[in-house]
């Protein structure tokens, strides 16, 4: 709760910076503010306050996920310092990002579907604008427009679903909906099920699960690289936390309604994401499809719907966010040097900048799920969760998909170490180097001591 | 404690080596490898010759999932740990003349791999075993990618994907077993044994297939061997030695520790097919080896034949078979490293390794010819060399399982003699030509490596008992607990 209030205040402060003329310092203030908020947020652990008249519940789940979001946000801020260095638009970019974070915090802690809708909208509208921040770039404009149209469309589905469920149950509260189902088992009106399916579609859009993933590659590619990183990490974390919260609390007694649909969606997402990624030559697009693929693994845990699910998703998003922050940070450096994001741009990085190449390799190994990195344990844990619920064929599909995943991640590794460079020097700033080394350590540490996170939920 | 130290020391060495620059690297690597060998010898001296797991260490690792850092050494593990610690210094010494670029990274990767290999051999927790198993793959992938020969990116990548596919199937098998352990689930080896044996024959069969795939690819057993000849040929010599000398023993060790005791009924269902595949591999690989013109490729195929016999002996699952497999794993490790080193010596001096351009080296360097001959005889399993005892026991075991299969498996001895002696003939005998006339003398470190290997071949051939005694109680215990 405190995190939400502080984040909104910080966002407003960032807007005021323009008026009161301290916009040179506002980046630093925001960064320090975020670090403070991260620690303040931890104070809510075990308090579980029911706030805003029971519309939000700041339970363990909410604290854990918002901590992941905040820590990713801190790392993201350090990585995207240059994004806030431009003379114009500095403060509005900052405040949009901070408001997006506030939306994300609402999405992980709602207990009322109206709040879910609010959270999603606060996050999404900020993202639509941020995607289009490169005003002179056609791709950026196209991406923003596409994102807006598709996002609005999916929100329509979501809202329609919420309305139908409200019509059937007379409540927006996710716990009351659950009670409604338990009380009336066989006599739940059919519009309720339609509502569930519409919400499923709406949320699948947000997490970019196939077949609702088509916006993701274009938007990821067109958006400024740092915003792509934001979408791949923080937005995905928040969307999944919201998705899981709704389905594991409200709809876990009517799994028969959605389990087959999610099963097919998961299989599709895994296969489409991974297989399409293989054919990409643009790294950004490759990472976009890989992000779709990772949605598939997280859907596995959602589908499992058992005691492992929430900690499996928590660990997965953490591992995935850390890996993505590193890959996008290095990709950003590469793009700034070469002006394009072709995989060939990574050629010879192993020679021209061994540190970057090493950290990138580690992050890619983590994304590919190779021990002893965090990504391996994340995959293992998700497999265990889904295995426990008996979806063995899906695990086999996931295994096949991970093999394909190894193929395209290793394309980059091979380019870095095997191909010859074009002799350009690639430099990272001191901040970026520190960030990369710290995250690399975190990736290994989480892989070796995953208990630190999974015992939280 | 010794076990943990055996795992940690190579890791420390690896980290230290990254920081060192310049010519010191190789020497420091050598010293570290010898220290590691000394530690394992110390473990041997403290070892009690019985079937129990010793030097055990067990710490909770991921508590909420019942995963432990549980390691320990019994007779079977100890032999393989000794093999690893014995061969790594030899591999490093053998690489003195190779002058790999970025030596600090190269040797660091070698030590990382040593750590993972020892970890595989001493793990008593399924999850830990899997992590070490995968961990062993990464250093060797980079060794092959960065220091390998032509077309290495493609070939090493195939190797990586192939082995990873097997490993992931094994992971599924392990998770399935884990879900069947009682209570809050555990990955402890005993719990997995109980869980596996508690299943019915059909499910044990599924698990057998899933886990067997991982080992079959690593060993490799026909028809999962297609990555192997290319990878062995392209990898740098030290990498080939690590792969063939030590790494494939992960697969055979896995069969003994993580497959046969886990799903005995599954073995009854599918073991027959697996043995037939192994024996097919022996004959098939031997036949292909005969037609090879590239010496390194020939040894790669001969290696498939040898390990096929080891796998068949293990799957026959009697005391002779397992003891034979232990003996043959050691001998094969020593012999194949010797052979690859000999190829490396020839290639460094002449730039060639195909039979057509070589010949008559014996006239130029008779000393080399004698050492080569000893290694070669060990490899064709002549009595009084180390290969003999292992092959004899293995063939005996296969015979007990099925005389017909033994007849085919026995072909490996004959065919082995054919291709090995032919290769000796075309490389060493005959007329000296322009390429081989400048062969020159062996350097000191080459002499030392070959002398140590030859000594090991002959000593072990004449008096194998001390080594076999180490594993015998553990093997007998394993066989009796399963057959009951």
Task: Provide an overview of this structure.
- The complex is a heterodimer of chains A (457) and B (484).
- Chain A is mainly alpha-helical and 457 residues long.
- Chain A has one domain.
- Chain A has helices at 2-20, 26-42, 60-79, 90-109, 113-131, 138-169, 174-184, 190-207, 215-222, 225-249, 255-278, 283-304, 309-338, 349-352, 354-368, 374-388, 392-418, 430-448, 451-454, and strands spanning 50-51, 56-57.
- Chain A has a two-stranded antiparallel ribbon.
- In chain A, a hairpin with a 4-residue loop joins strand 1 and strand 2.
- Chain A starts with a helix and ends with a helix.
- Chain B is mostly helical and 484 residues long.
- Chain B has one domain.
- A two-stranded antiparallel ribbon of chain B has the order 1-2.
- In chain B, a hairpin with a 4-residue loop joins strand 1 (54-62) and strand 2.
- In chain B, helix 10 runs antiparallel to helix 11 (237-259) and helix 14 packs across helix 17.
- The longest helix of chain B has 32 residues, at 319-350.
- Chain B is globular, with a radius of gyration of 21 Å.
- At the A-B interface, helix 16 and helix 17 of A face helix 5, helix 6 and helix 7 of B.
Which percent band covers the strand fraction of chain A? under 5%
What Rg of chain A is obtained from the alpha carbons, in whole angstroms?
A: 21 Å
Task: Round the Cα radius of gyration of chain B to an integer and report it.
Answer: 21 Å
Number of domains of chain A: 1
Percent of sequence in beta strands of chain B: under 5%
Number of helices of chain A: 19
Helical proportion of chain A? over 70%
> Residue share in helices of chain B?
over 70%
Q: Class by helix and strand content of chain A?
A: mainly alpha
Oligomer: heterodimer
Tally the beta strands of chain A: 2
**Uncertain parts of chain A:** none
Question: Helices and strands of chain B, in N-to-C order?
Answer: HHEEHHHHHHHHHHHHHHHHHH
């Amino acid at each position: 709760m405190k995190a939400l209030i502080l984040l909104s205040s910080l966002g407003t402060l960032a807007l005021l910076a323009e008026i009161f003329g301290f916009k040179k310092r506002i980046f630093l203030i925001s960064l320090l503010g975020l670090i403070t908020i991260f620690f303040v947020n931890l104070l809510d652990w075990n308090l579980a306050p029911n706030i805003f008249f029971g519309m939000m519940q700041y339970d363990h789940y909410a604290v854990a996920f918002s901590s992941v979001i905040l820590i990713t946000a801190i790392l993201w801020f350090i990585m995207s310092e240059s994004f806030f260095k431009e003379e114009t638009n500095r403060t509005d970019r900052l405040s949009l990002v901070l408001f997006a974070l506030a939306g994300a915090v609402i999405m992980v802690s709602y207990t009322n579907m109206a709040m879910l809708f609010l959270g999603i909208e606060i996050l999404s509208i900020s993202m639509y604008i941020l995607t289009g921040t490169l005003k002179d770039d056609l791709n950026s404009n196209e991406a923003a427009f596409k994102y807006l149209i598709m996002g609005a469309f999916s929100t329509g589905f979501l809202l329609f679903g919420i309305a139908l469920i409200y019509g059937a149950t007379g409540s927006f509260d996710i716990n009351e909906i659950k009670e409604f189902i338990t009380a009336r088992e066989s006599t739940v009106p059919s519009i309720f099920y339609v509502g569930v399916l519409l919400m499923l579609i709406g949320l699948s859009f947000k997490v970019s699960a196939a077949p609702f993933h088509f916006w993701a590659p274009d938007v990821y590619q067109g958006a400024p690289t740092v915003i792509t990183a934001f979408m791949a990490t923080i937005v995905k974390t928040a969307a999944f936390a919201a998705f899981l919260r709704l389905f594991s609390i409200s709809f876990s007694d009517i799994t028969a309604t959605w389990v087959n649909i999610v099963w097919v969606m998961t299989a599709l997402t895994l296969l489409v994401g991974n297989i399409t990624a293989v054919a990409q030559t643009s790294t950004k697009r490759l990472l976009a499809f890989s992000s779709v693929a990772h949605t598939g693994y997280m859907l596995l845990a959602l589908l499992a719907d058992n005691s492992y699910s929430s900690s499996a998703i928590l660990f997965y998003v953490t591992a995935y966010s850390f890996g993505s922050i590193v890959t996008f940070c290095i990709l950003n450096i590469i793009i700034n040097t070469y002006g394009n994001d072709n995989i060939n741009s990574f050629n010879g990085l192993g020679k021209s900048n061994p540190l970057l190449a090493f950290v990138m390799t580690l992050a890619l190994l983590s994304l590919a799920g190779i021990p002893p990195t965090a990504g391996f344990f994340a995959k293992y844990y998700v497999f265990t969760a889904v295995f426990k619920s008996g979806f063995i064929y899906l695990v086999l599909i996931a295994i096949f998909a991970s093999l394909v995943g190894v193929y395209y991640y290793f394309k980059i590794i091979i380019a870095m170490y095997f191909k010859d460079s074009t002799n350009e020097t690639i430099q990272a700033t001191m901040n970026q180097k520190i960030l990369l080394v710290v995250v690399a350590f975190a990736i290994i540490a989480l892989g070796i001591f995953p208990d630190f996170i999974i015992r939280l939920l | 404690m010794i076990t943990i130290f055996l795992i940690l020391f190579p890791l420390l060495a690896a980290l230290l080596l990254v920081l060192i620059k310049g010519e010191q690297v190789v020497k420091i690597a050598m010293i570290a490898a010898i220290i590691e060998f000394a530690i394992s010898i110390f473990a041997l001296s403290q070892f009690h010759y019985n079937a129990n797991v010793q030097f055990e260490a067990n710490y909770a690792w991921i508590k909420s999932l019942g995963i432990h850092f549980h390691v320990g050494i019994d007779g079977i593990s100890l032999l393989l740990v000794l093999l690893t610690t014995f061969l790594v210094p030899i591999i490093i010494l053998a690489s003195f003349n190779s002058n790999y670029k970025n030596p600090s990274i190269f040797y660091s990767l070698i030590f990382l791999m040593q750590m993972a290999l020892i970890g595989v051999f001493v793990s008593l927790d399924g999850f830990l075993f899997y992590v070490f198993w995968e961990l062993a793959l990464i250093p060797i992938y980079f060794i092959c990618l960065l220091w390998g020969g032509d077309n290495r990116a493609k070939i090493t990548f195939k190797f990586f994907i192939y082995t990873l596919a097997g490993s992931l199937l094994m992971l599924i098998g392990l998770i399935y077993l884990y879900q069947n352990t009682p209570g809050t689930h555990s990955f402890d080896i005993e719990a997995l044994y109980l869980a596996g044996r508690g299943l019915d024959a059909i499910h044990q069969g599924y698990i057998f297939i899933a886990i067997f795939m991982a080992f079959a690819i690593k060993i490799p057993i026909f028809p999962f061997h297609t990555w192997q000849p290319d990878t062995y040929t392209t990898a740098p010599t030290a990498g080939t030695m690590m792969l063939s000398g030590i790494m494939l023993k992960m697969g055979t060790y896995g069969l003994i520790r993580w497959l046969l005791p886990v799903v005995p009924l599954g073995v009854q269902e599918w073991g027959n097919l697996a043995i037939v595949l192994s024996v097919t591999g022996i004959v098939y690989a031997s036949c292909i080896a005969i037609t090879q013109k590239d010496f390194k490729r020939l040894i790669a195929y001969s290696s498939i034949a040898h390990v096929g016999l080891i796998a068949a002996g293990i799957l026959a699952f009697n005391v002779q078979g397992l003891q034979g497999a232990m003996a043959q794993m050691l001998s094969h490790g020593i012999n194949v490293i010797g052979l690859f080193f000999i190829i490396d010596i020839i290639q460094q001096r002449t730039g060639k390794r195909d039979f057509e351009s070589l010949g008559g080296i014996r006239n130029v360097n008779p000393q080399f010819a004698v050492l080569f001959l000893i290694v070669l005889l060990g490899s064709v399993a002549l009595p009084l060399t180390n290969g003999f005892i292992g092959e004899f026991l293995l063939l005996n075991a296969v015979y007990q399982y099925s005389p017909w299969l033994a007849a085919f498996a026995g072909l490996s001895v004959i065919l082995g003699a054919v291709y090995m002696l032919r290769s000796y003939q075309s490389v060493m005998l005959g007329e000296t030509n322009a390429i081989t006339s400048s062969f020159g003398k062996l350097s000191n470190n080459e002499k030392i490596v070959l002398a140590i290997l030859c000594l090991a071949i002959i000593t072990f051939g004449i008096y194998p008992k001390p080594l076999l005694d180490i594993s015998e109680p553990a093997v007998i215990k394993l066989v009796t607990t399963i057959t009951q």
